[in-house]
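Journal club prep, notes for RB
We'll compare a predicted complex against what the paper describes. Inputs for the NDP case:
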Amino acid sequence: MDFDGKVALVTGGSRGIGAATAVRLAELGADVAITYRTSPGDVVDRVKGLGRRVVAVRADSGDAEAVAAAVEETVAVLGRLDVLVNNAGEFIVGPVEELGVAEFDRTFDVNVRAAFVAVKAALPHLGDGGRVIGIGSNVAGRAVFPGFSLYAASKAALVGMTKALARELGPRGITVNLVHPGATDTDANPADGAGADVVRGFTAVGRYAEPSEIAAAVAFLASDEARYVTGAQLHVDGGFTA
Ligand code: NDP
């Protein structure tokens, strides 16, 4: 896989799966932009250390204008855009009685609307070979735990958007795919957190994923080798949904 001369934008790229993805794409030769909400973390230094160009943009994915502006800043600074990874996600869970319209709106603004807005902003810049990759969740297809009504619904919404956009953008040579991570050891879901053993028990392999294992799947879908893969859902969940 060779991303030399290509530019990737990863939303929510300062920590966790997004950071691993940004660094992996840079290792493979891409220049990368990330967005973040509070802190850019150490990704800028790590990407620079790989000899690639990098830009970090503060842009809360709940703010549609900020998301669109981040796409424009990526192109302004790095000159082009080839790969969009919609990774930033809001994880609001709890009993349905305790979830309200505010939680619904926040979840869908960050997890669904931002992806839509980013694609719209990216499209004028994505040429033949362009790539759009969403980060869904294993719970989009199998919601085994109580409290996931909003989160699972938002991730399931990405399935429909991915398929429809794949149909629409296929004739332009742009692929659109969705990676469904399973439990992945990040700040949002630490492998030593409460309930982690229960989660592990639902997997076939008996462990959490490392962020790099999700990043590897994203990199494949972003690559030229994956040019005939579109509208697909790739579960990287250790067999959680098997
Ligand atoms: P982390 O909490 O480890 O990292 C989240 C990253 O996204 C950080 O860079 C954070 O920036 C950024 N971010 C969070 N909210 C926003 C926002 N509103 N706008 C912009 N950036 C934001 O999360 P994960 O890596 O675990 O999750 C990444 C994606 O993977 C999410 O979509 C999540 O739903 C999905 N996922 C994760 C799983 C897991 O087990 N970890 C399982 C299935 C799916 P900052 O550092 O500034 O806060």
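Talking point for the session: The chain has a mean pLDDT of 97.
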